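Researcher: I'd like a structural prediction for the single chain below. Treat it as a standalone chain; there are no partners to consider.
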Amino acid sequence: MDLSATGDPVVTQADPQVHVGLDLKQGTVVLHQGGTDYAPHHALVEFASPEGRPWTAQEARFSAQGPDGEPVSLTVDLLNDACDGPRAGVPGVIWKVVALAATSAGDVGITYEPPTS
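Model: Treating it as a single chain, here is the predicted structure.
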């Protein structure tokens, strides 16, 4: 490929967001909802830096198969209702998934520290 490039890219969005996808090893995470267990195979974590504030995890979406074999998507809101901190009651394993995604996102300048339990 014959390619050259110049420039210094700058993000101009007021609220930049980054989505980081992770393929999860089957069976390493189990989500329980309404009496049903789901073993997700993929997670998509959304990070944002609203108005230049530090990066924070906003949401985690998990793709899994339901007991009937049909695809299922489960979404976990990670910010509290005031959007100023982590949501209480989020299971620790989900924060581990977020931390793995943040490690992957480090290549785009995201620095993230999971909340302490």
